Give the backbone structure.
Amino acid sequence: MNRAKFWLALLTVGVDALMAAIAFYLAYKARSLIPFPTPLKLGRFLGYVDLLFVHVLSVLLTFFFFRLYHLGRGISHFDLFYSILSAVSVATIVATAVTYLLRQSDRELTRGVILYSWALTTISVGLGRIVTERVKGQVRKKYPDRLLLVGTGDVARVILQKTLQSPQLGYKVVGLVGENGGGEVAGVPVLGSRAQLAEVLRQHQVDEVVIALPEASHEELLDMIGACESVHATVRIFPDFFQIIASEMSIGDLDGLPLLTVRDVALRGWRLAVKRAMDIVGSACALIILSPLMLLIALLIKLDSKGPVFYTQERVGLDGKPFPIIKFRSMRVDAEQHSGPVWATADDPRKTRLGAFLRKTNLDELPQFINVLLGDMSLVGPRPERPVFVEEFKKIVPRYMERHKEKAGLTGWAQIHGLRGDTSIVERTKYDLYYIENWSLLLDLKIILRTILNQFRGNRNAY
C-alpha cells in the first residue's frame, strides 16, 4: 500500500502540472482570440515557454504549502475546489511577480493572459483533481488500510457504520476491541479485550486504529496509544466528549504558562452585518422566484383538507427568545388535541395526504423565507425547537443553550448531515456548535449548496 500511495502522490503532482500547463497555453490562445481587455496580437508561443514553466512551478509549490498534497480522505468536491481556488490565486500572484523580476518588462505577460490563466488553471486543475481522486478511491478499494476500532459502544457503532458505507475511503475494518473479547458488532468480530490490544494489532497487521471511547481516562488513552505506537499503527481518537463540552480552543500563555482560551461563539460586527445582508437578499430572491410554486401549494392545501393554508408555531430562536415560525399546514387542524407536543414520525396518522408529500420534500418550510426576511431566522443556522423540547434538552445536553447564540436557520450543518427529525439531539448539538464556532460566509454557501443538492437526492429523516 505504501508503494501505491507513492505512485498516487506522483500521479496527482503530474496531473496538476499537466493541467496547469494546458491552462496556460489555453490562456495564451484565448488572449489572442478574445479582444479583452483590449485587442492584442501576441507573438509565437515559443517566446512564452519559460513563463509556462514559471507558472507550473508556482502552482506546484503553492499547492505543496497549501497542503493540497496532504489531503484527508473523503474531502468534498466543494472544499477541494475552494482550496484549489485559493492556492491558484496565490500561485498566479507569485508567478506574475517572478516573471516581472526575471524579464523586467510588461510586454510579454499581459493582464489578459494573467486573468485567463488564473481562471483556466482553477477549472482545469479542479477537473484533474476530480479524476485523480476517483483513481485514488478505486485504488483504496483494492488496497484498503486495515482498520481496528477500540470500543463497542454507540460511538464505535457510528464510526463502523460510516466506514462500511464508504468503501472509497479505503478502510477494511478487521474487527473491534471491547471491554471483553468475543461476539460481534454489525457482523464485525470483536477480536479481544483492551488488555489484549497490542497482541491483536500484531496478529492482524493493523495499519490504523480509531479509539472510540469518549469515557476513557487519560491513563487508559496513553496505554492504548503506546500499544499502537509499538507496532507503528496510526492512531486516531474520536473527540466525542471533548467536542461537546469544550469550544474550539486557542493556546496562549501567561508569562510562559500555557493557557487554553475558549472561543466566543457569538457573531458580532461585520460578520453579523454580512450574514444579515445575505439573509435579506437570499430570502427576497427566493420569495420572488418561488411565489408561483407557493401559490400552487396554497391552492392544493385548500382543496386537500379543511383548515388554514399556513400554520404558525412557537419556536425558540436567538438568545432563547420565542418567535412564531410560519409553515404550510401539513397536518390536521386538531393534530395535537389529544397527543400534545410530540415528534412527527414516518407514518404519522396526523398528516394530510398532501402534507405527507410536503414534509418529505421540505416544501412545507418555504414560508419560512418570510421569517428570514423579517429577521426572526437566518438562511443557515441551528434548526429551532419548540419551547417544551428546549426545556427538556437543556437539562440533559451539555452546552445545548449555546446553540441559541445564533439565529435559527432554514437549513444547517446538522441537517445536511442527515441529523433532522427524530435523530440524536446530542449529535445535532455538536454539529450546531461546530457551525457557530466556525462560521464563515463560505461555510454558509456550502451548506446552502448541499441543501439544494440534497433536495434532488432525497431527504433522510424528513417526515
